[in-house]
Write a structure and sequence with these properties.
Elements lengths: L1 E2 L6 H6 L1 H8 L6 E5 L5 E6 L26 E5 L5 E4 L8
Antiparallel strand pairs: 1-3, 2-3, 4-5
Length: about 90
């Protein structure tokens, strides 16, 4: 989490992704920016490697014998390695 210099709007920092990546010496795809908990604060995450460029992990649905469509269904992982699930009922997928 970064505190922006006084007078620097968050929107300007979020649109300067190319410049921030260049200053850090990484590719734009390795950089993730998000608004902080207040104006003037930026959450910044830099990946060591380009995301999703290695060998893919098997999907979580391959190990399941059956699924309950009324509950969240595991779909994969995000950039941080956290499981991502989605509810088909909420998304009208049935």
């Amino acid at each position: 989490t970064l505190d922006l210099p006084s007078g620097t709007p968050l929107k300007k920092a979020l649109t300067a992704k190319t410049g921030v990546a260049s200053a850090l010496g990484v590719k734009v795809q390795q950089l993730h920016q998000a608004p902080g908990d207040r104006e003037g604060r930026l959450q910044l995450r830099v990946s060591l490697h380009l995301p999703f460029t290695g060998k893919p992990d098997p999907g979580p649905l391959l190990d399941l014998n059956c699924i309950n469509l009324w509950r969240a269904i595991p779909m994969g992982v995000n950039l941080r390695g956290q499981e991502v699930s989605t509810s088909w009922v909420e998304r009208s997928g049935l």
